[in-house]
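quick one before i forget lol
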Amino acid sequence: MRNLICLLAVVLFPFVSIAGGNPEFVLFPADYKSEFTHYHTQNRANNKQVAEFYANNKAIESYKNGQLMDGSIVVMEVYKPELDSDGQPVQGENGLFVKSSLAAVAVMEKKQNWDTAFPAEDRTGNWGYAIYTASGEIKENNLECAACHMPLKNSDYMFSYEHLSK
């Protein structure tokens, strides 16, 4: 379903300049493992990865008030799954893929007053994006983050919005 949403975003929003994240403006929160709350784990919509989600206190607290506030930061660790002999992801007893190696760390940050040098077409709403390596180095950012999140306005442009209640 989420793949369909991303496909529709690319097809239905051709007027949007599609761009991935921008680490110049959305910085890597080095302390997210110790300072953020782990709130969800799920297989990714592409059925080839598993993701661990973390949110800072601002995101968790403001979710409880009904709207994520400026300064909310969400981190998604993207893991490659273990593969079986047919090259398919191995599922654990809980239905989640068995994690292998950390492939990337994606960061979403919500901010109303972004620097004017950060193009609006690289954002959805007030959310900016960036992708990093497992060690926090800048990773190739040619993904279509903004376009994929565009249809999710009712969930504040987040795929994991409803899970912030944990």
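fyi The helical segments are 2-12, 32-35, 57-64, 145-149.
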